[in-house]
Amino acid sequence: MKRYRNILVLILVLLAIPSFTVAAFWKIPQIRETISKNDRNITLKTAVIDGDRIEINFLIQNTGTSDIKVSSFLSFRLENAAGQSLTNDSFSCSGATIDGTILPNSELTGLVCFKMQEPGPYKIYYQPGWGPSTDDMVWQIDNIVEGADVETASDENEITQINQNESLLADETEEDNNQSNASAMDEPASGSIFDRLIKPNPTSPPSQIEDIQIEKSDSEPAISEVFINGIDKQLLLSLVPTIFPKVAIDQNNWGQNDFQQDKGEGIIFEGKAENGDYHLGIKTQSPLKEITYLIRAVTAESGLLHDFHLHVDITKGEMLPVDNIGRCYLSYSNLYPDRTNLDYYQRLVIEPGFTIYTGNSANPSSSQYQDWFSLESYGQIGTEDSIDIIRVNGVANIYFNQVFIGEVNDNAIEDVSLNIGTMLGEAGQTVDCSFKNFQVRTRDNLQTSPGDTSPVSLISEPGNQAVENQPIQLEQIESLFPTIILDKNNSGLENLQTNLGDGKNYTTLFKNGIYHTIFSSPVPLTEGFSYGEYFRQNTVSISDFVFHADVTLSEVLPAGSTGNCVLAYTNGKTIQDELYRSVHLFLGDESFGYSQDNGGAYQEGIDLSAFGEIGRNYSINIIRMNGTTSIFIDGVLVEEIWDEMEGNINWWFGSYTGSGGTYTDCAFNNFEIRTTQNIQTIQSPIQNPSPQVNPEKQNLLGQVQTLFPNIAVNPNNWGISENDETVSEGVIYHSRLVNGTYHTILDAPGGTTEEDSYGHYLNTQLGSFRNFALHADVTITEVQPSDGYGNCYVSYTDKEIAGENRFKWFDVEPGYAISTYAYPEKESVEFIDLSNYGEVGRTYRIDIIRIDGTANVFIDGVFIGEVEDGITSHVTMFLGTYIEKNTQYVDCAFSNFEIRVNKSAGSY
Fold first, then answer.
1. Residue 491: CA atoms inside 13 Å, Cβ hemisphere, count?
2. Which burial class, exposed, middle or buried, applies to 651 when counting CB atoms under 10 A from its CB (0-12, 13-18, 19+)?
3. Omega of the bond prior to 691 within 30 degrees of 0, cis?
4. What phi and psi values does residue 257 have, to the nearest 5 degrees?
5. CA 615 to CA 555: how far, in whole Å?
6. Region 407-430: what's the mean pLDDT?
7. What backbone phi and psi angles, to 5 degrees, belong to 424?
8. Cα separations (Å) of 793 from 694, 739, 815, 883?
9. Tens digits of residue pLDDT in 641-688
10. 393: Cβ–Cβ under 8 A, 6 or more apart, which residues?
11. CA separation for the pair 77, 96 (Å, rounded)
12. Degrees (nearest 5) of the Cα angle 34, 38, 43?
């Protein structure tokens, strides 16, 4: 701090000498001077020369009534004495840059940085608009380190302390003026006196600036998030050549060449360069039985990317049939090409015609993917879509046809590699995608990416045992799936006998430590018959797992008849039966998939007839990760499939007896199911909770008016009116306003033949919401007959924003549960049981406080629990009534409705 004081004293002494010839410099405001103009006060606080960079610290105060936007990149420019504009280097500042929005009567301080270029002195301009204008304000910087020398200026905390003590230092300078050593004045000049002042003192200790480390990517420097956040997104696109000056990848080095691959079963993959376009296509001799992907890695001479700009023009050409769901896509992930990090990687996928989504294999307890933005209006056949991605510190800013679509937090904490691809849906025959004008720009040269970067195909390749095509090796099982969730000690299996009718029996028994499933019939069967059982379901959401069993077909009678042992997994026990999917292995016969939600469609797998020898033990491993299942028999990979399965998984095993058979005995041993998850993450959901006061959450409820001071919706503007509407056969929906209470009624005089629900959106013209506090008093007023069932619900959803084809709901239903629903997955998850809150005629006070995707729910002023709703966009609100089958009338009453927001915090 002493060196700071001496520098300041010397400056004051010099200014006190009338004969000093630099008076002309001070006609322009200098460091620590304030300019007041256009409803703002702007102070240049400090200017520090740090090697080849100058860091300038500004304070801006908003004295007006409107918000002020400030960008360290767009709001400032610096010129040297030759009139040259210097390069903005704000993404390399050592501290926080001055980026953001300044509210009225607020202020913002931060850095703006430029690359040094002689000669000085320098002029720094503040531009109230985006670009030079007559309203610009200018200061002159005469090569001084103001406020600290290079050493102390590198410490942001010390700079802050200096600024806070300016008044104290000013008092000290008067005393120092009287005692200053005249030798400092008599020193011969070496150029400007200001040049002399920044020279290091020969007796001072070495600068410690090299010890201060700014954490950056191994492959290229990271750009400041604050810097990006302060720039208008549309302007950000126009700044690409400046921010990313290096063209790292284009169509000269992106590694795409002509090829043709026969994938078997009449499926051909093709890649071909033609007239400046690169075409990726899939052709088949007959309609596909399952969705097929063709993925091509961008294998440039350069390697992994951190911050970058990517551009490509994509056109979906010929596709048969035209109503197939074939698509072209662009993606990146931190999955290394050698697939060594399968247990922890993220990806971002852009599919014109579908959506932008991210996937996260590092958190299998949550959904495998998260939708961000619908792209249904893009990806039309024959229409070119121009796509730009500007990725900075894990946030991807995405543009279609030069228009900003939105930003996505991809969570890919490591550097990423790129892919292009095409997809052909089930029953599809051809699809062709063309890619042109491919370019990736970066800040600096990139390092070589690790491992092989050969293209990866996710198509099922029966019998392919090549190591490079195995996503997981058997020796990796224990490390990748460390948690055992089921074995013979907790399988829930027991000896039993089940009468199946007509003399048929299914028997299970333990014999010599081995579990047998036996089917028997007194007479030969006229058609095949299978029977078996599920393991005890004791998990919430297991998406990635290893299912192991040693299986032996012990006996088949009569000799020569058909019998098989069966292993399967399905989500049929955890979602509605009409929506389930399953994968089956019939050892000695075949594998196949089954989709009940697709009209009962079968998807053929591979021939397993070689694995049906009576008396022989087969070691089976079914390894599922990220929706792709690898099946090993006796240590050999025999099949890879993508099952398209969502939700919880159950495991099934049993016996099959073919036509003419009377007896089949299958023996199962060494059952084991392992998962990637920690055991604490797979506990069952809360059932029938006893509300306990949580001090932190109770305090949250008490802070509602402070956190959300603005009332956005109440019964005066909620946009709900009275109406009558037939919602289904025999069911009429009535809504009535009675003394300020809103009633939603489902009326089925003849009794409902199936369950039904209906309700009303609130006034969506008031805007959608992100963070808010919602309150409603809810009463199940009447249910007829008395033994009927119905309830009321308060919901919010992104359906009005995301559209009909992909949306999510969050429901609070007193008398039932707090739950979520996702479409098109048709997956419903119940989080907290509310059956204790369904008393007819009783009013329940409901509060939902939603902050950044987490809903905190209170009933009658008591915290019930919190739920992550999985919705990434804003939401709108919905009130409704549910009626159960065979019920005639349900009346729900809603009163004292209110939604509070904090508009300045971005709740709208």
1. 24
2. buried
3. no
4. -130, 170
5. 7
6. 85
7. -120, 125
8. 24, 21, 9, 11
9. 777 776 668 888 999 999 999 999 999 999 988 887 543 333 333 333
10. 222, 223, 225, 228, 307
11. 18
12. 20
CB atoms within 10 A of CB 118: 10
DSSP label at 873? S
CA end-to-end span of the chain, whole Å?
47
Record the tokens describing residue 22, joined without a space.
């630099």
Contacts of 439 (CB under 8 A, 6+ apart): 247, 249, 250, 251, 310, 311, 312
Give 321-335 as a DSSP string.
STTS--EEEEEEES-
Listed residue (475, 480, 491, 530) closest to 670, CA to CA:
491
Helix (H) or strand (E) run with residue 250 in it? strand 246-250
CA distance 163 to 46: 9
State the Cα–Cα distance between residues 99 and 225, nearest whole angstrom: 10
pTM here is 0.37
pLDDT digits (tens, 9 = 90+) for 95-146: 888 888 889 999 999 999 888 888 888 899 998 876 667 778 999 887 555 4
Whole-angstrom distance, CA of residue 524 vs CA of residue 557: 9
3-state secondary structure of 771: coil
Mean pLDDT score of the chain: 76
Query: Is the separation of the CB atoms in 337 and 449 below 8 Å?
Result: yes
Residue 826 CB neighbours (<10 A)? 14
Contact 689, 496 (CB under 8 A): no
Instruction: Decide: helix, strand or coil at residue 376.
Output: coil
Tokens of 776: 């409603």
Sorted by sequence, the CB contacts under 8 Å of residue 421 that are 6+ apart come out as: 280, 293, 294, 295, 296, 328, 329, 330, 331, 433
Q: Which residues are bridge partners to 617 per DSSP?
A: 552
Query: Residue 168: helix, strand or coil by DSSP?
Result: helix
The three-state secondary structure class of 111 is strand
Sign of the CA dihedral with 35 first, then 38, 40, and 44 last: negative
- Contact in structure between 871 and 798 (CB atoms under 8 Å): yes
For residue 251 the two structure tokens come to 């169509």
**Higher pLDDT residue, 180 or 241?**
241
Q: Which two tokens stand for residue 743?
A: 């009633």
Q: Select from 618, 255, 540, 223 the least CA-distant residue to 418.
A: 255
Tokens read off for 627? 């929706």
Is residue 69 within 8 A of residue 101, CB to CB? The reply is yes
Residue 178's contacts (CB-CB under 8 Å, 6 or more residues apart) are: none
DSSP letter for 189, please. Answer: P
Q: DSSP string covering 492-523, please?
A: ----EEEEEETTEEEEEEEETTEEEEEEE-SS
Q: Which residues pair with 40 in a beta bridge?
A: 37, 62
Q: Would you call 7 helix, strand, or coil by DSSP?
A: helix
The one-letter code for the residue type at 837 is Y
Exposure string for 292-317, b = 16+ CB within 10 A, e = fewer: bbbbbbbbbebbbbbbbbbbbebbbe
- Measured in residues, the chain has a length of 908
Between CA 111 and CA 146 the distance in angstroms is 14
Tell me which residue of 895, 900, 901 sits closest to 776, measured CA to CA: 895
Nearest to 736 by CA among 726, 715, 721, 748: 721
* The token pair that represents 805 in the structure block: 């084809």
Q: Mind listing the pLDDT tens digit for each residue in 158-203?
A: 323 323 333 332 333 333 333 333 322 233 222 222 222 222 222 2
Could you give the residue ranges of the DSSP H alpha helices within 662-789?
A: 695-702, 704-707
CA distance linking residue 385 with residue 379, whole number of Å: 7
Three-class DSSP category at 491: coil
Integer Rg of the chain from CA: 35
489 vs 486, 493, 552, 704, 725, CA distance in Å? Answer: 8, 9, 21, 49, 56
Q: What is the residue-wise DSSP string for 447-461?
A: PPPSS-----B-S--
